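Hi L.,

You mentioned the student needs an example of a multi-chain input paired with its predicted structure. This one should do, with 419 residues in total across all chains.
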Amino acid sequence: MNTRGLRSQLKDSVPVTGLCPQAGPYGVQDSLRRGFSSVKNELLPSHPLELSEKNFQLNQDKMNFNTLRNIQGLHAPLKLQMEYRAARQIQRLPFLPSSNLALDTLRGADDTIGFEDILNDPIQSEMMGDPHIMTEYKLGVL
Amino acid sequence: MATVSVCQYHRGGFSFENCKRNALLEADINKLGLSSPAARKTGTTICGLVYKDGVVLGADTRATEGMVVADKNCSKIHYISPNVYCCGAGTAADTEMTTQIISSNLELHSLSTGRPPRVATANRMLKQMLFRYQGYIGAALVLGGVDCNGPHLYSIYPHGSTDKLPYVTMGSGSLAAMAVFEDRYRPNMEEEEAKRLVRDAIAAGIFNDLGSGSNIDLCVITKGKVDYLRPHDMANKKGVRTGNYRYKHGTTGVLTKTVTPLNLEVVEESVQTMDTS
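Structure written out for the whole complex:
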């Protein structure tokens, strides 16, 4: 839940640079894996909310950690971030959905319902990623 | 193979993939001189007021889709929790989904705290969600209820600003309804007088605004009980047909009658069994 004021924390929000970095491992457009690129696609968001929604969770976390640091000192966000990092590693195979239960409980999102639970539920998606490709991407051999 | 989504598991929530395509389609359609379909709105009159024992919420029941009435008797007073109800104006789908999400969140929150929910909690949840989406969720709401601190009434605008007031109106007919409120509102009214005032305010919106019409729904919330009066007043009943253009039997006289039997013979007969197991 966003419980803190925004103004003092604006300097910490994620800056707007580009939308989706199309550069592959060698620094140029990776046509094979990411398709054709166009300058317009990369510079302008297709919807004013697209950027803010993509970074929403990140900005919330930054704001919360900053307020926590101001109130309780540096140790509080450090410990919490360590726990987040540990919880984020509890995943299934790359192509299977994981519930992220520990991460949700830490964030306090285990007893809230938002649009990400109702719209576009990944569990009910008609398409599935190819298991081989996704595992190779995760391991970095793709 | 050539998409990012192939490599990473995709997240839920709003997807902006089709926005560019929609913008292109919109431009093309406008070039042809046509217009794309409009979302169903509830150009509406909703209002609420605080009286001696609680809160009275009122709403009309017309939902419009452009210049056509889409629903003659839609329900605009949504349930949030046993002691909190919310009227919604604006895009019908937005108000419906927003109030349902907030109702679920409030229930989870009250189970987690172990206390009955408060109106201020619902207000804060709604304003934070609406501000997050910067007004793109077109939901203008009147939120009212009675909790441990007494009766409360809030009005919530689509961009996320809220007002806590003793009487509020929203929607396209809000000016007509507010005129009635400003004339006759007094603090600490009795229940009957409050119901009559809300009914008159909604009626003013219904008869003076094209976007509002049909019946008047009321919701009276007090400390122990909720009266959901739907419909409280059918201000616009469809008329009963007074005449009939049908001709009675025997109106037209029969001059002659000839009967011609058709001799049909069976050419072929085949039987197809159905699998009814």
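You could point out the following to them. The radius of gyration of chain B is 27 Å. The first helix of chain B runs from residue 19 to 32.

Best wishes,
N.
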